Each structure stands twice: as C-alpha cells, then as structure tokens.
C-alpha cells in the first residue's frame, strides 16, 4: 500500500492519535493515509477510505491543494463548510527530490478558535518537521544560528546528535560551500518572495562533499524571523549529469571523427570499386546503369561510356530476357539476392556469372558480378567425377555386401568358438560392469546358471575376493584398452575359492564399449607352484646346511696345506709343489663356491622391503668401488637411469653382479666399453647393461641363469656359475623379468625389468 511506503509503523501509531481529521493525499487528491477520527467521521472502513478522492468530500480545497503543490510551501485556510461551522485546514507539503510528492491536511473545527494556533497544531508541525524524509534545518534570520534540525538532516550531514549543531552557524561548521549567498536569500524572502531554491555542494561532518537541492522559506517562530531550509540529496543525479555531459562530449568527438571517416570513405570508394576484381554495377530502379568499374567493362568488353548508356536487360542473352531472376521480389523489398545467370559480352559470347545484388538505402541497386566460367568448368568436371564415383560406389556397395556376408560368417565362427572354448569367456559392459554374455566353460568354472549371471556384475555375485584389485584391473582396461594375464582369486557359488588367469581386450559395438575376458582356471597350477616353492625352500635349506657343514673340513684342508707349505715346502720337488698348489687352488675355489651358494640360499629366505631407489647413485658407487679393487678400467657410458622401486640391498647386489660380469667378459678387448641405461614402458622400468666383450651363443641362452651353468670355459673366464642365478632370483622376488641378447665375440646386453610403484589401493 502507498501509506506503507510513506510512514513506518511507529509513525502510523502517532499519526492515528493526532486531533481533528488528518489526511495524507497524493497530487491527484487520492487519500493514501488517514487517522481514525477521519475514518470514523466517514462512517466507513479504512479500506474504503484509502484511495478515495478527497475532492469528492471537500470540493472547496482544490485551489489550495493546487497552490501548495505549485508553490511547495505550507499554508493555512479557514472556510465555512456549508453549515454553521467553520473549519480550519492546514496544508503541509512533503517534498521528494525537490518536488511535492504528498500533502498533509489537518482539518479542525474552528468555530470557537482564536487566532492563536492550538497546541495540537504546534505538535503536528513539530512532528511533521521531525518525521519529514527531507533534511530540514531552522536557523535565525538575524544571527544565522541553528535552532533545530530533523533526523534526516543529521543523516544527510552524518552527525550523531543535534547538540553538535544547535547554537552554531552553518558557516562555523562549514556545512555549505559558498554560504556567502545566505544574505541574498534573506533579502529575497524579506521582499515577499515565498521560497528561494537552488543547488549547492554541502560538506558532511567527515569532510565528504555531496550535492543537495536547497529550498529556503521565511517562517516566524516565537515572534522571531527564521529561515527553514529543505535539503534533498541529489548527489547521484549530479554524478549522472556529469556522466551525461562526458558522454555528450564523447559523442560530439565521435560525430566529428565519423564525419571525417565518411569523407575519407567517399575518397576511398572510387579506389576500392576500381581495384575490385569482380565487376561492380550500380543502377537505378529501372535498371539503367549509373556507375560501373573497370572490371565490369573488361568482363563484358564494353567501355564505361557505352555501359552507362545501357540497361541491365541489354547485357542479357535474348533467350534469357523473358525470365526474371529468382528472389527478385525479395530483392525489391530490400533483401539481398544471390543468383547465377548468363551475361552477353559485346562480341556476342555468353559467360556464366554469379550475381550478388541488394537494394541500397537511396533506392539504387548494387550488383557485384563474378565471372564463374572456370568454376562452371570445374563443376562440369566434378559432375563427370561424380558419375564415375557413382559407378565406384555401386562397385563398393557390392564389395561391402560381400564383406557383410563374410562378417556374418565371422560372427558365426566367433559364436561357435565362444561357446566351444575350453577357456571361460565373458563379455562385459564397461559402463556398468554387467555381463552381456558368457560361455558354458565360464558357467562351469563358477557354478552359476546363465540366468543368474547375465545382466549382473561380478560384484553382484561376489565372485572376486579382492574387489580393490578387480577395480584396479578394470581401471587399467578402461585406460589402456587391454590387460594381459592378471591373476585373481574367484569364489564359486559353492563358496570354493579358485585361482584364475585373466586376459582382457576391449571392443566397441553400437557405441557401447565391452571387455572380452578370457579366463583360465589355474588352481591346479597354483597348487603345483606352491608345492614346487615348498620343495625349493627345502632344497635351499639343504644346500645352505650342506654348504655350511662343508666349511669346517674345507678350513682343515686349507690349514694342512698351509702347514705342509711352511714346514716342508723347501723339501718338495716341482711335482710335489704342483700337487700342493692344485690342492690349495681347488680349496679356494670351493670356498668361493660355498660362499656363493650360501648367498644364493640367503637371498631366497630374505623378505624384500621396497622403496624408491636412485639408480644413478647405485650404479656410480658400484663403478667407483670396482675401480678401487680392479686394474681393468673399461670406458663406461651412462645414459638416463630412471629410479626403481625395489629392495635397496638386493638391487645393489644385482648391479654389482651385472657390472662385474660385463667387466670380466670385456676385459680381453683392446678398448672395452660398457653402456648402462634405462627406459620406461606402460607399467615397467627396463634397465640394460651392454658390453663389447666375448658374448655368447644364443642357442644356449636358456642355461644362462641356471646355478652352476656356464657358457665359457673356466680357463678363459673364472667364476662359480652362481652370479647370474643370484641376479635372476632377486629379480624374480621383485616380480620382474630378466633376459639377454648376444653375439659371439661381439658382446652381450643384459636386460631386467621392474614393475613401477603402484598407488595405494591397487
């Protein structure tokens, strides 16, 4: 409601308690608020009073309402209402943005009134002063001291209380910029001018400046002339005016610039039109040429003077003059037209052209004409090619039909192979991991029926024991498209656990990705492997025990041989000394063999503790240590070495053995060279060490990593035949791979691959 926009609840309570009839009207005299006395006098409800035109009740107030609205000042009037009563009416305007928005009327019975205003009237004035949304200030006309301000004034000037202002002048407080005009305002009011209005800058308590609309009237309070100023904040309006002024200045500059550009554009027009490769024709509404460029003249073989005497119909072949181009009606309505036609040159030949035409704002017609003779030839050639292509398409269609038949036959073969395979095969939707199809071998493997499996996932059936590992495998499938030989433990319907080996490839069919999973039951193989591991552990334990037990008698042999050498060496002839040396050397060799066997057995029993290993540091340290203990110094070439995820002690042993092996077998070369490097695959780091030494015959490569297996004579290269076997055992414990390639007398390259570190949860 409008009254709710005008006053808040506290003011409404005060408003209702005022004496007499109090009514607030808008500039159309419609009632927007009224006190209870007025409502009761009308013998109606408030809802019926609000919105009613007050002139219907008091038609005699029209002149005063119009005057108050026009002059923006409060007025009083006393009139007879047609009975024996006389009523007093006070009109108080409420200003907003310098204009009257509402008028407050207080109507009282003045039959017994005196010339002195009633206390109620004084109270009404005071309340209207305090609650006025405009900033009001009353100051003495003689001494300029502030006598009163309302809350809106405090808010506008950002003061906290009236005490900061009352008794002081606006000049002292520096409230108004250029306050020297105050005297002029007082003189104007004294000369019977009802109100002095203007705009000025005001200064707040904090020193900020604002713009205000200021209206000043002369009032008498306690028989003293005073000035009452009404101030309304117009800062936003002034800022907007400044912006508009700036915009207008920019517009003026823009207009000047655009005018200059238009002039320049006119100068450029002739240059552009003459330089255009396409023919440009400008004609009037009847088709008479008004302007053409040089390209148009060259295209048709006429001079410019000849064309300017011609009409658009004159350059058409006779047989084409009877037809109008398509979209011609739309062209006449202002739309652009693009069409192809034939134009006749001066020599009588016709050429195909493409015409882009549009109506200009001045009623002239602009046509841009392009000679498309070459394009038409190309189109004709394309038509010939298309005809040939159609023949080829027919041939290709026949081939495709044959391939479709072959594909159908392939699908039939796949279906037969799918269901006849002894391996379990499943087809799974990657979108939701549900089984789309499975073969009988898979159903026999897990003990479920087809109905129990189709459209269900492995998770639904609780098939996979380690679901985290399964999710990791599926993630690899989605990312890489395939997984090779992933081991899993599967729970059959009966609850029995079986071990399977799974290889997965992905296909796309009808925009849906599927995983084809070939599954082998390796439960028996796992059991055999476990038995083999148990036997190997027993063998390791036995070899460890035997090697350990052989140490004591070996020490005795070495001891007695040393005693014989010390006590009787000078009495031995050469044959006896040769026998004694042979005993000593054999015992030393056997000692090394026992040490290697013990190390081989020890590695098998150790638990590996993996961490990130800086391969470069490990290799450099082994090379440095090797240089301190060996006279042979080959040239080492070190390429990029990626970090590995391994047991530090064990991987250090691997590098020591492989470097020693490379040095030993390249020592007889004149310039021994050893290269060491690495590279990454999808899930492995592959290391290699290459030498240019003796090499070996790849026919015997299968024996390379066996215990006591040697591919060279001991007389040529010393060794126990355990070093490479130890390397393979360490790599196997890391789930890695090791292999080698070589050529006899041209060196060998040993490779080993270690899995990359897996993130948590995989």
TrEMBL record:
Pfam families: HATPase_c, HisKA, PAS_9. Keywords: Coiled coil, Kinase, Membrane, Phosphoprotein, Transferase. SUPFAM superfamilies: ATPase domain of HSP90 chaperone/DNA topoisomerase II/histidine kinase, Homodimeric domain of signal transducing histidine kinase, PYP-like sensor domain (PAS domain). Residues 265-335, 410-471 form the PAS domain. GO terms for cellular component: membrane. Residues 196-246, 337-384, 484-534 form the PAC domain. Residues 237-268 form a coiled coil. It comes from the Bacteria. It catalyses: ATP + protein L-histidine = ADP + protein N-phospho-L-histidine. The keyword Phosphoprotein applies. This is histidine kinase. It comes from Pseudochryseolinea flava.
């Amino acid at each position: 409601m409008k009254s709710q926009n005008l006053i808040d609840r506290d003011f409404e309570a005060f408003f209702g308690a005022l004496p007499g009839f109090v009514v607030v009207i808008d500039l159309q005299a419609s009632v927007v608020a009224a006190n209870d006395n007025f409502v009761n006098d009308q013998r109606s409800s408030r809802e019926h009073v609000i919105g009613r035109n007050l002139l219907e009740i008091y038609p005699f107030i029209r002149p005063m309402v119009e005057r108050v609205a026009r002059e923006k000042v409060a007025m009083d009037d006393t009139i007879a209402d047609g009975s024996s009563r006389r009523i007093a009416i006070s009109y108080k305007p409420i200003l907003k943005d310098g204009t009257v928005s509402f008028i407050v009327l207080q109507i009282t019975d003045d039959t017994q009134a005196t010339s002195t205003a009633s206390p109620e009237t004084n109270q009404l004035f005071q309340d209207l002063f305090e609650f006025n949304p405009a900033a009001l200030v009353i100051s003495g006309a003689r001494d300029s001291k502030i006598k009163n301000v309302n809350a809106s004034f405090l808010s506008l000037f950002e003061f906290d209380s009236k005490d900061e202002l009352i008794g002081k002048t606006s000049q002292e407080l520096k409230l108004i910029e250029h306050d020297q005009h105050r005297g002029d305002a007082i003189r104007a009011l004294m000369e019977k001018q009802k109100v002095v209005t203007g705009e000025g800058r005001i200064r707040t308590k904090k020193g900020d400046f604002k713009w205000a609309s200021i209206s000043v009237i002369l009032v008498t309070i306690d028989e003293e002339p005073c000035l009452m100023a009404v101030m309304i904040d117009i800062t936003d309006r002034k800022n907007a005016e400044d912006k508009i002024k700036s915009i207008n200045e920019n517009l003026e500059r823009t207009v000047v610039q655009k005018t200059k550009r238009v002039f320049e554009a006119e100068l450029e027009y002739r240059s552009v039109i003459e330089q255009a490769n396409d023919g440009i024709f400008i004609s009037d509404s009847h088709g008479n040429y008004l302007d053409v460029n040089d390209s148009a003249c060259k295209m048709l073989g006429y001079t410019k003077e000849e064309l300017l005497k011609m009409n658009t119909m004159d350059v058409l072949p006779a047989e084409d003059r009877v037809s109008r181009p398509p979209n011609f009606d739309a062209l006449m309505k202002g739309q652009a037209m693009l069409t192809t036609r034939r134009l006749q040159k001066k020599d009588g030949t016709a050429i195909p052209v493409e015409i882009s035409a549009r109506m200009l704002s001045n009623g002239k017609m602009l046509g841009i004409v392009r000679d498309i003779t070459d394009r038409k030839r190309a189109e004709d050639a394309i038509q010939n090619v298309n005809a040939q292509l159609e023949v080829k398409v027919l041939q290709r269609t026949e081939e495709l039909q044959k391939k479709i038949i072959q594909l159908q036959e392939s699908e039939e073969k796949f279906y037969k192979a799918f269901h006849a395979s002894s391996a379990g095969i499943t087809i799974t939707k990657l979108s939701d991991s549900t089984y789309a199809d499975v073969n009988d071998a898979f159903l026999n493997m897990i003990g479920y029926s087809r109905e129990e499996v189709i459209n269900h996932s492995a998770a639904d059936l609780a098939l996979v024991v380690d679901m985290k590992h399964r999710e990791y495998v599926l993630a690899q499938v989605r990312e890489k498209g395939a997984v090779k030989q992933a081991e899993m433990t599967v729970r059959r319907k009966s609850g029995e656990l079986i071990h399977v080996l799974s290889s997965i490839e992905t296909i796309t069919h009808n925009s849906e990705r599927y995983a084809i999973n070939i599954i082998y039951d390796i439960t028996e193989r796992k059991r055999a492997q476990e038995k083999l591991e148990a036997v190997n552990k027993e063998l390791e334990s036995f070899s460890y025990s035997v090697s350990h037990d052989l140490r004591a008698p070996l020490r005795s042999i070495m001891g007695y041989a040393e005693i014989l050498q010390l006590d009787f060496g000078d009495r031995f002839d050469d044959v006896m000394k040769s026998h004694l040396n042979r005993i000593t050397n054999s015992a030393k060799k056997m000692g090394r063999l026992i040490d290697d066997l013990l190390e081989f057995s020890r590695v098998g029993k150790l638990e590996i503790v993996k961490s990130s290993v800086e391969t470069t540091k490990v290799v450099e340290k082994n090379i440095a240590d090797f240089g301190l203990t060996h006279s042979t110094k080959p040239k080492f070439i070190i390429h990029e070495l990626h970090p590995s995820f391994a047991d530090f002690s064990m991987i250090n042993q691997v590098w020591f053995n492989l470097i020693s092996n490379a040095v030993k077998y390249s020592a007889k070369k004149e310039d021994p060279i050893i290269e060491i490097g690495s590279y990454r695959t999808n899930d492995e780091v592959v290391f290699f060490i290459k030498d240019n030494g003796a090499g070996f015959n790849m026919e015997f490569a299968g024996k390379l990593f066996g215990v006591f297996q040697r591919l060279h004579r001991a007389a040529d290269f010393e060794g126990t035949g355990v070093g490479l076997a130890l390397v393979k055992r360490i790599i196997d414990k890391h789930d890695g791979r090791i292999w080698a390639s070589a050529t006899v007398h041209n060196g060998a390259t040993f490779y080993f691959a270690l899995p990359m570190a897996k993130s948590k949860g995989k």
